[in-house]
Amino acid sequence: MSKRYCNYISNRVSPGFSLHSLSNHKKTHTSPILSPQYENNTDSLKNTFPDKYTISSLVHWASKLLQEHGIDSPSLDAEVILSHLLVCKRIDLYIHPDQPVEETVAMRYKKSIQRRSQRVPLQYITNHAEFMSLEFFVDERVLIPRPETELLVEAVIKKAQILTRENEIVIVDIGVGSGNIAVTLAKKIDNARIFAIDISPDALAVAKINAQRHDVFSKITFLCGDIFQPLEGCEIESKVNFIVSNPPYISSNEFHDLQKEVRDFEPYGALVSGQDGLQMFKRIIANTHTWLKPGGFVIFEAGEKQARKIAMLFDETRCFKKAAFIKDYQHISRIVIAQMEECRG
Ligand code: GLN
Q1: Span 141-339: which CATH code?
Q2: pTM of the full structure
Q3: Which of 12, 14, 18, 143 has most ligand 1 atoms within 8 Å of CB, for mutation?
Q4: pLDDT 10s digits, 186-200
Q5: Burial, 42: exposed, middle or buried (Cβ in 10 Å; 0-12, 13-18, 19+)?
Q6: Cα 39 from Cα 246, distance rounded (Å)
Q7: 268 C-alpha to center of ligand 1: Å?
Q8: Please, which of 44, 112, 160, 171 could form a disulfide with 242 given CB 3.0 to 4.6 Å?
């Protein structure tokens, strides 16, 4: 597999990476090599599950099982899941290794570890993902927030700081998912008014949970529909300061090579966008001029080798200045920033 392909995939797919600094990046494209005696064989669980439930006996059992199923960080995952169920810090497990664990918790732990061994992402098991140092509720209805997306949020915050003459900063987030972008921007930009759009009502339900959790519900209007369509009637034509999006950008061919955690558990519609992965960018760019205020910005997250193609799409509209890029920690141009000309035509 080419380097480009490995990097591209590992950036989109890293279950376990953001929670407690777990890192799966290196092996993300390899298939798990399941130990034959464990494959589809739940009996083996019964055989090894401890009779006495203590912190150390459970973690020991779980680490071994996860290792046998080819999980990259078996001990870490085993500990994170147990500390989640015991509502304690990971460090506490080390302090009280012999502490007995109630049977109901032990049974829930067994089930959670079985799910992880089947490659359910850690974040869906703990219903927790960290983004910009904020805690987000996540489950199978939404994409797990990725650290690269923090670069997008930081770029918006930086640009918003220079818009001192605006009473209100109007932001449209397309594909809100868990609400990581919209909620963080609502928290960090005092005068933000955000329109958060998703085609999935399930995703919007999760985003609302997170808006409530972070006390920014009143700053965000949640809208269900396709791209800009639900903005009709909101009376914000030519008033939007920022259109932001981390749209699906994986091509339908690449989807099959994704890490199992992503391919089998994260929402397809949040990942894949047509045969070239660029469909959503094209559709968004084609309609920005209706909504964006002259001088306003479109800020996208993009896949590897997509940034320049997206910049060309902006060029073709003749409504934007030359696009700028921000590189991620792997030196991939990850964020595309395009500013609309001050006066059009
Ligand atoms: N806005 C969410 C995120 O950045 C969801 C994006 C998506 O569903 N493609 O993670």
Answers
A1: 3.40.50.150
A2: 0.86
A3: 143
A4: 999 999 999 999 999
A5: exposed
A6: 36
A7: 12
A8: 171
Pick the CATH number of 16-126 from 2.40.50.140, 1.10.101.10, 1.10.8.10, 3.40.50.2300: 1.10.8.10
Long-range pairs for 91-100: beta carbons < 8 A, 24 or more residues apart: 93/55, 93/59, 96/55, 97/54, 97/55, 97/56, 98/54, 98/55, 98/56, 99/54, 99/55, 100/52, 100/53, 100/54
Element (H, E) at 268: helix 268-271
The finding on whether 299 has its CB within 6 A of some atom of ligand 1 is no
Q: How far apart are CA 108 and CA 86, in angstroms?
A: 11
CA 225–ligand 1 middle distance (angstroms):
15
Strands 333-339 and 292-301: antiparallel
Q: Which atom of ligand 1 is nearest to the CA of 176?
A: 1
**How many residues does the structure list for the chain?**
345
pLDDT, tens digit, for every residue of 9-55? 333 333 322 222 223 333 332 332 223 333 444 445 454 799 999 99
CB 217 within 8 A of CB 211: yes
